[in-house]
Amino acid sequence: MTAALDSATTRRTVDLGPAVELVSKEEGHRQPLAPEFVSAEDFSPLEVAYDFGRVRREDIQAGPRNIWRYKKLLPVPSNVEEIPNTEPGCTRLVKADRLAKALGVKSLWVKDDTGNPTHSFKDRVVAVALAAAREFGFDTLACPSTGNLANAVAAAAARAGWQSVVLIPSSLERAKVLTTAVYDGNLIAVDGNYDDVNRLATELAAEHENWAFVNVNVRPYYSEGSKTLAYEVAEQLGWRIPEQIVVPIASGSQLTKVDKGFREFAKLGLVDDTPYKVFGAQAAGCSPVSTAFRNGHDVVQPVKPDTIARSLAIGNPADGPYVLDTVRRTGGAIEDVTDEEVVEGIRLLARTEGIFTETAGGVTVATAKKLIEAGKIDPDAETVLLITGDGLKTLDAIENEVGPKATVPPSAAAVHAALGL
What we know:
By secondary structure, the chain is of the alpha/beta class. The chain has 14 helices and 13 strands.
């Protein structure tokens, strides 16, 4: 939920811009801004409540070419852009006509977030988390991660001059390990899956008061960074909300915050309040939310992940129930795809639009294809696919699938022969 509160009656001890309180998602219990993520009243997740005041398109357009153009809508200090940070955001929205033709839809866009500083959308959420953590007096940035978050936290901490503590499953893709270790923070590999690593992070967060675990004790602020994907899509479409959007599901936070971003823009009058549908994408080897949706359940049962899409391999997604609420409220759907379909999704996007996505993007493309074929995505409605990470991070997924068409001696005749000319 988004709460607009009377700032005159709200006491704030930190400068987090328009953020005024935390509100529990289940029963709406309110409490002061703090590095806490669960309500002591109803034990549900906490979410940031705002007093936005007046926000105009002109104000946003006059801002920097990064997520801080939306700082009046985020829980960050008013001078956030003046403090060293990775300056993520303002990634391209690609008109994907060739992919649209391949999928059989009329109007298709790809939000390509591979252009962020560490090549995934996680730079957005980490930048917001770091800004909030600084206000709360932390000095170490930390996280449990399936890979992309590890990259983003290590890079953001290095840029800010902070220490970092990053916990990853020991089975993580080699590329993501290297692209975290290069920042020379404290990278710890843990024998276990992401859910094991996440439980360990929660324990450590309670023991180390100066460690800001971005997706644990400062999670309410961190998750707000995903709203900027919705803000950018709406602004890049000429200040309007797309009719349909497909979002990959890991913890589920991104999907719920994209929806929140659209609703905030509409409430503030920045876009027309038009209907839209949100669709969720999971890998079959880790599809607890998709399974719950298919079976008509409200409870998401944890699973043990077994998929090449490791960045989505969260077997017990914290925001799973809220994903179900969002998708059902907007009239969307949630589907899952096999690892083979994931690889084909990666290759399809690459050969039609020249965009190389990691496995999570393969999940998004393949799921969109499946939903279109099932008649759940309207082929005549404008659709956006979120591509959240770079394919260079998951080369192992395609290394046995692609390669040279031929190996020839250095002669034109040999090339012609190989090409059938």
